[in-house]
Design goal:
With 294 residues, the protein is α+β, with helices and mostly antiparallel strands. 31% of the residues lie in helices and 33% in strands. It is built from 9 helices and 17 strands. Strands 5, 6, 7, 8, 9, 12, 13, 14, 15, 16 and 17 form an 11-stranded antiparallel β-sheet that branches. Strand 1, helix 1 and strand 2 form a beta-alpha-beta unit. The longest helix has 19 residues. It is globular and about 60 Å long.
Amino acid sequence: MYYFIVNKTAGNGKGFRVWNKTERLLQDRKVLFKFSFTEYKGHANKLIENINDKAIIAIIVIGGDGTVHEVVSGLVQKEVALGIIPAGSGNDLARSLGVPFDVEMAVERILSGDVRPIDVPKVGGRHYISIAGLGFDGMVAQATNQSKSKRYLNKLGLGGMSYVMNIFKVLLTYKPSTASIVVDGKMREFKDVWLIAVANMPYYGGGIKICPSAEGDDGQLDICVVSGIGRWELLFVFPLAFNGRHVAHRNVTMLRGCAVQIHSKKPLVMQCDGEVIENEKADFKVEKKALNVL
């Protein structure tokens, strides 16, 4: 038995269209399933908490990275697997895992039953699955989530462009700060820090390959630090990140470890899987092979 959690409004209504096609495919194949629609932010997490049917072998999310983020904490250290049928604006986790964006192919992948255990990072008391970003990209995520343009770009199938547009908006006002980063007990100091990304997967922001070497099952977190760079030079570095070439730039530092603590002189806005997180201590660790994914 498969249980589908459907965010109808994901991708400006794409979630509902994807569900309609998925439902027809499941009925044609005579697959046993249940489903629920999310009705508000955080509802997916509540739905997971209330599932007690032992016949359910997998939870399938139809939505974007935000909906998957809500589901993950309820599946950590459980035998029940997570499946994804992408329907959001960014779909970075699906991209990182190689999940097809074609609905029929994504359904076939789920029904094949091939399970892969992956790591789950945790910051403070919160699990996430792909990338946590602090500083500049936290503010960009905040601006994107509040942006009216995101809805219109989703209609055109260009939801990821909303993130790019807000990079330029935040660039004009963001003020870098000093930060120290402790990775597996070793501390590094950075001045004029623009962003710190703590990654389990390589992609965020609708296809930005911020940590190209990140792998979801290696027991490590990859950290990208952009510091000591001028406002306008950052515009040159940014396009390089779409294919991971930014890592060779002199103002980009790549680190890797199992435990990460970040301290800054001023509070840094944090996002996890594109969702802005408030009042979380920037203390990261990894729960190895803690989530089964299809």
